[in-house]
Amino acid sequence: MLKTERQAYILRQIDLHNRILSSDLSTEINVSEDTIRRDLNELADMDKIIKVHGGALSKSFHSSFLKSDVYKADSKRLIAQKVVPLIRNNMFILTTGGTTIIEMARLLPSDLNATFFTGSIPAAHEYAQHPNIEVIFLGDKISKSSQIAVGGEAISKIGGIKADLCIMGINAIDETGVTDNDWEVIQVKKAMIQAAEKTVVLSIAEKVNTHQKLMICGLDEIDTMITELDPSNPLFESYKKHGITIL
Amino acid sequence: MLKTERQAYILRQIDLHNRILSSDLSTEINVSEDTIRRDLNELADMDKIIKVHGGALSKSFHSSFLKSDVYKADSKRLIAQKVVPLIRNNMFILTTGGTTIIEMARLLPSDLNATFFTGSIPAAHEYAQHPNIEVIFLGDKISKSSQIAVGGEAISKIGGIKADLCIMGINAIDETGVTDNDWEVIQVKKAMIQAAEKTVVLSIAEKVNTHQKLMICGLDEIDTMITELDPSNPLFESYKKHGITIL
DNA sequence: CAGTTTTCTGCAATTTCATGCAAAAAAATT
DNA sequence: AATTTTTTTGCATGAAATTGCAGAAAACTG
Description:
Structural class of chain A: alpha/beta
Strand order of the largest sheet of chain A: 6-5-4-9-12-14-15
Mean pLDDT of chain A: 89
Shape of chain A: globular
Oligomer: homodimer
Order of helices and strands of chain A: HEHHEEHHEHEHEEEHEEEHEEEHE
Largest sheet of chain A: 7 strands, parallel
Number of helices of chain A: 10
């Protein structure tokens, strides 16, 4: 059995049962537990499953019960503070989901008049709390692992929008561009970038100069990048050369 | 059972009951009390629960003066418990929003396979937490007052569905039928009733035999009504005459 | 205050994990 | 087809995690 096959099998089992034990998989597939462990680690690195002592859990399981505290919440709050001034009255704004975006939504001034489009349930929920913001939810089918709407419905609706700004939380960026690892999410993000006049990406510094398997866009499609670091940090030199504003 | 699973189970129990005893958990999960205690300590360290002598309390319960309590939460939980058995595997279910529905969503067994359609952001959010439930969000424009999707988009999408069940939280019901006071919400509810084979209405007893300004539907379109009271209560006599099952 | 229950501590048995290494398998190259 | 390079796998080792248990300490009850 090929490695890829095996990992596909593991993913399917986790989808089916929401949990699996390394020892069970080992006897089922007839490989050593070490191999299983390595597979599980790889899948966990790709954010496809949650690895725990003794086996692994599906991501939806995790999000439901174990939602832990937000990773690097302080950094994310800092980033959120830097985004808010970019948002002006009467703008049409496309956003993704993610904890940084949620943080931003909470910081929006209550007298702000704007229209927000999002496919993320938590984000929509947050926007809906604000008195003067109009919220449009994009898409119908909700992907559980990412809690956002995915699929053709979402994409085509995004295509019908001409937004002023796209504010996107990202998972990895390096000199080749922005990358991610969930195919469905990427389709949505690509469409969002196309539909917006300007694109702002939000990322904690830890993710800068890392990359993942699937490409979202090149650096030339990004207008602004915001991290928790000072814009003068040398980390950003190469991005500035590509004409990206660092905040 | 994996440690992580066990802790998830504990958290869920605490969410549900607001308090639990170490000894109960020990016999339920079949591990030593020491293990439970260690779990509770870990969860308390993570600030997810409040550990007390003999067991633990839910954090939201303990710091409840911060959160707005749900009105008649106990009644609503009772209602929710009565709804759950109506939901079977592979059903297509339309639901509204509202605190009772949210409560129901939390009680859905984790092995339930079903597809839920809703226009309510909080409800969609809750459904999305479940491992085996597919969530379809209806509509795009979100009405802030009710936190649900309203307007033509929502209505037309509902029209395209043939659901097994419509589960609807209502604000008023009397012998003339179900009434409400938000015109946009009513359009959505009407469409939902049309699109479902059977309609179940949920209401706290306080709202029975009251009415509001705008009509949603007559009693003949209702199949089942659920309140927190015993079905034999004389309050329901006239509804039974209209062929409505009381639970 | 006496008796019961719960908690804490240290400990031992078991399981699971990470790491380095060498053999095997697969892929790429000549 | 043969050979080199890369990837993958299994195993051994020691480290770390998990769990249950015993006995002392602490908390609770009436």
